[in-house]
Amino acid sequence: MPSFRFQPIGIVRSPFTDKFGIPRQPRLVDAGEARVVLRLPYGREEAFRGLEGFSHVWLIFVFHDDCLQADWRPMVRPPRLGGREKVGVFASRAPYRPNPIGLSAVRQLGLSRDRDGLALRIQGADLLDGTPVLDIKPYVPYADAIPDATAGFAVEPPASGWRIDFSPEADAQIAAADADGCLQLRALITQVLAQDPRPGYMDRYPQRKRFALRLYAFDIAWELSSTGATVISVSHVA
Q: Where is the TsaA-like domain (predicted)?
C-alpha cells in the first residue's frame, strides 16, 4: 500500500507543558485557553471564513514527543481500567498506535493575531504544548453527535470527587503569578487535580502522598489528604 507524508498546518500552544496532568479527554478542563498557531501559508483569515458559525471544531493532530519513537502496541492498559486490564489498541485512545494520530473536539473561540502569527483560540484542549496539528474541521452536530451511542468501559467522565484546597503560600503565589487572571491559573489547577491526574496504578502505592505537575511555566506541588488534594506551592520554573 502507498505511504503518505503530511505537513502540519500549525502547532498547539497550551497550558500543558508536561504530559503529567494533561486531561485524558477533551473538554474535561475548560480553564486555561489554548491556541493553534498556524504556519504559513495556512495562516490566512480567508481559510477560516464561515467557521464563526460553528461552536466546536475537530483537531486532527500528531502524538509527538517520545510517542513518535515508540512502537505501536496491539494491547494497551487504559487509565479508565486502572492500568490493570488490557484492551486492543483499536478499542482505546492510547497514543501508541500504528500511526500516532489523535482526534479532539474542542470549542473554538475565534482567530487572534500576535507576534506568532494567526492563531485559532480553543477551549477544552487535551493537548501537550507543541503538538503538531494536521487539520481543522468544523464539528457538525447532526452528523457528529450520536445520542444513542454506547461507550463500553468509558461511560461516565472521570472524576475523583476530591476537594481541592490551596495553602496560603500557594494562594499568594498564584495571585502574584496571575495578577490579572488571564491564565485562569487557580481554576486550571483545580480542574486538573479534580480529574486525578495520577496514573491508574497509583492506588497500589497508598504511602505516596506528594506529587508535582507543570502548567504553563509553573511547577505545581500538591499532596493528598483524607478529604482530597491540597496545593502546597506554585513556583515559576527556573
A: 6-148
For 83-138, write each residue's pLDDT tens digit.
778 999 999 998 888 998 999 999 999 999 999 999 999 999 999 999 999 999 99
Domains and CATH numbers, the chain: 10-144 (2.40.30.70), 163-236 (3.30.2310.20)
Residue 66: what pLDDT? 67
CA 61 to chain centre: 12
Element (H, E) at 187: helix 185-194
Angle at 213 between CA 101 and CA 189, to 5 degrees: 95
The residue type of 70 is A
Long-range contacts, 219-223 (Cβ 8 Å, 24+): 220/21, 220/189, 222/193
Tell me the per-residue pLDDT of 193-216, one tens digit each, with 9 for 90 and over: 998 998 877 777 788 999 999 999
Q: Report the alpha-carbon distance of residue 95 to residue 140 in Å, rounded.
A: 25
Sign of CA dihedral 129, 134, 138, 140: negative
Nearest to 187 by CA among 16, 26, 13, 32: 32
In terms of Cα–Cα distance, which of 196, 189, 176 is closest to 232? 189
45's grid cell = 483569515
Buried b (16+ CB within 10 A) or exposed e, 79-91: bbeebeeebebee
Task: With beta carbons less than 8 A apart as the criterion, state whether 42 and 9 touch.
Answer: yes
Return the beta strands (E) in 40-170 as ranges: 56-62, 75-76, 87-88, 101-114, 117-123, 132-138, 163-166
Alpha carbon dihedral 191, 127, 26, 195, in 10-degree steps, equals: -30
